[in-house]
Specification:
By secondary structure, the chain is of the alpha+beta class. The protein folds into two domains: 6-78, 2-Layer Sandwich (Phosphorylase Kinase, domain 1); 85-258, Transferase(Phosphotransferase), domain 1 (Orthogonal Bundle). It contains eight helices and nine strands. It has helices at residues 43-58, 85-92, 97-116, 172-175, 182-198, 206-210, 227-233, 245-258, and strands at residues 9-18, 21-28, 31-38, 69-70, 74-78, 119-120, 129-131, 141-143, 150-151. The strands form three sheets. It has a five-stranded antiparallel beta sheet. A two-stranded antiparallel sheet has the order 6-9. A two-stranded antiparallel sheet has the order 7-8. α3 (97-116) packs antiparallel against α8 (245-258). The longest helix is centred in the middle third of the chain and has 20 residues, at 97-116. The structure holds adenosine-5'-triphosphate and magnesium ion. Keywords: Kinase, Serine/threonine-protein kinase, Transferase.
Length: 270
């Protein structure tokens, strides 16, 4: 039975509205929540909305924002103050090697958790990473937005619809239609690290690179110790990338050690 959650929401503050979905901040049972409300009656959008809630409910890890409540029209999440990684980069410019690798490590720990549960996120990018409390640290990472994700065992193929990932962060095989490949998330994590260090993603003409028209990548940013992991994660062929999120994290940890930085904690997302 669907319930009318609207009646339980107080102090509603609209944030955005597009694609048939309204996002708001509100109070729900004494807690500040982030609310997504489906406004559209399109069966395609309804199915994708339910799918987003189901996938996000499957995962439970401190580095991922899971829903408090899912109904056919509403998704309620704990509100995470601090803004997105994108907002942070826009506000203060590129991150140094320490913060950039800390944040990427948090994204990889969340990805490892997802992949172990048969979920690929497929839309990892700075807009979909919240930094709790505004800190650019591993512990502060909160991955959001399962609107593009793929979950093994869930029947629905939601990806034939209109929503496309951002080309800059999308792996070439994902662009060609392949779904459910965990190493696509590693490519996105590589672009995210690149963007954190450089202040811009690697390909100005991302669509041209995705389509195989050119290989004109910007110079690898940051210290040389990070170039191996960047080069590997950004490989066109998934076989050229690290085999898993854990392996990419190990490369990041080695790079941090070479830079004299302490290892990031790895026990945050069991
Ligand atoms: N739990 C949360 N707490 C605080 N802010 C959030 C939360 N979840 C999402 N946001 C904010 O809302 C934005 C949109 O959320 P989300 O990425 O889940 O939706 P979306 O489908 O990508 O919508 P959009 O196309 O507007 O980005 C995020 O980029 C972030 O700024
Ligand atoms: Mg998003």
């Amino acid at each position: 039975m669907s319930r009318d959650v609207s009646a339980e929401l107080q102090a509603r503050q609209p944030l955005t509205e597009h694609g048939g979905v309204r996002c708001e901040q509100a109070l729900w049972r004494g807690q500040t929540v982030f609310v997504k409300t489906l406004l559209s009656d399109s069966p395609d959008l309804q199915a994708r909305f339910v799918h987003e809630g189901e996938v996000a409910t499957r995962v439970a890890c401190p580095l991922i924002v899971s829903p408090l409540l899912c109904t056919p029209r509403h998704l309620l999440f704990p509100f995470v103050p601090g803004g997105t990684l994108r907002e942070r980069l826009d506000r203060s410019g590129p991150l140094g090697a320490d913060e950039a690798t800390q944040v990427t490590a948090g994204v990889l720990l969340a990805a490892a958790h997802l992949h172990a549960r048969g979920v690929t996120h497929q839309d990892l990018k700075p807009e979909n990473v919240l930094l709790a409390g505004g800190q650019a640290s591993t512990q502060s990472v909160r991955v959001i937005d399962f609107g593009m994700s793929h979950a093994r065992g869930l029947p629905l193929d939601i990806h034939s619809g209109t929503r496309m990932g951002t080309p800059h962060f999308m792996a070439p095989e994902q662009f060609l239609g392949l779904r459910g490949e965990p190493r696509s998330d590693l490519y996105s994590a590589g672009v995210l690290l690149f963007d954190c260090l450089a202040g811009a993603p690697p390909y100005e003409d991302a669509l041209g690179w995705l389509a195989g028209v050119h290989d004109r990548r910007a110079a690898l940013p940051g210290p040389a110790a990070l170039h191996e992991v960047l080069r590997a994660a950004l490989g066109r062929d998934p076989d050229d990338r690290p085999a898993s999120a854990a392996q990419m994290l190990a490369l990041l940890q080695s790079a941090r050690a070479a830079l004299g930085l302490a290892p990031v904690p790895e026990d945050l997302c069991p």
